[in-house]
Design brief:
about 160 residues, alpha+beta, Zincin-like, four-stranded mixed β-sheet, 4 strands, about 10% strand, globular
Length: about 160
């Protein structure tokens, strides 16, 4: 197991996991960005539809959906770190100026594959939809509540 795979395995909270994402991008693309915050919000899910996270272009925040995080904890907790890594990596790439969705998907897969080749992380980067049974509430779940801005100190995944 390489250094970043071990760091992902050891990550105990969102802050540590996000640091693994940043290290992965620094290692593979030699790019980075400071001053980025993370917010968690109940964005819900539709019937077979999911918005995992978003990065408002030009902002300094990535907003991650709590709904699939909660569903993962109920269905298959072992997917929490791989899922979170892929989602944060995708949005972090947007924050670096990669706007085109297809380009970001390809880069996400390329980075995941170069570090976690053959693992569930790589598989999720290739096709997240096959994990929908573990991520989505059947029939959908409404959004609600306010966004929590993560203090980038000891935090839980789902607040």
């Amino acid at each position: 197991m390489n250094k970043l795979a071990k760091a992902l395995d050891r990550a105990e909270n969102v802050k540590e996991l996000f640091e693994v994402v940043k290290d992965a991008v620094r290692l593979t693309l030699n790019e980075s960005r400071a001053g980025l915050d993370l917010g968690l919000a109940e964005l819900g899910n539709g019937d077979r539809q999911l918005l995992s996270a978003y990065y408002p272009m030009g902002s300094n925040i990535i907003v991650m959906n709590k709904t699939p995080l909660k569903r993962i904890m109920q269905t298959k907790p072992g997917l929490l770190k791989p899922y979170s890594f892929i989602v944060l990596l995708h949005e972090y790439l947007h924050s670096l100026g990669y706007v085109d969705e297809e380009t970001v998907r390809v880069l996400t897969y390329r980075i995941a594959n170069s570090i976690f080749n053959g693992s569930v992380v790589t598989d999720m980067a290739r096709d997240l939809t096959k994990y929908f049974p573990y991520l989505l509430y059947p029939g959908g779940r409404p959004a609600g509540g306010e966004m929590d801005v993560v203090e980038m100190e000891d935090v839980d995944y789902i607040g």
